[in-house]
Amino acid sequence: MAGWDQYITNLTSQGVTHAGIFGNDGSRWAASPSFPNIDHLRDELPKAFSAQPSGVVVNGEKYIFIRNQDHFAVFRKGADGMVIVKLNQAYIVSIGVNQKPEMLVGATSKIGEYLKNCGY
């Protein structure tokens, strides 16, 4: 899907270490180079918005659930943070190495809101 890379570039230019956009079916629309593997992507991402989320497994390590709101969920593993934004047809995942997850929320939510308003 041409054009998705611009959103990844936007996120990484704002300090996000790894960013990816994935369809609801788990397909990879775009991702930064060496984006970590999210185990069972198709199953893991929707869990972030379940009634009792516990965490998401990335490269075999669990990111612990911190909080979620209407369209985003926040996770942490040690000094690393992760934000998942839920769109209509996809998810945006931002991971920050040595970054508090709250720093990732603003940039990721802004792009998510834009894409959601465009029907994605």
From TrEMBL:
Keywords: Actin-binding, Cytoplasm, Cytoskeleton. One of its GO terms (molecular function) is actin monomer binding. The keyword Cytoplasm applies. Pfam families: Profilin. The keyword Cytoplasm applies. Occurs in many kinds of cells as a complex with monomeric actin in a 1:1 ratio. This is Profilin.
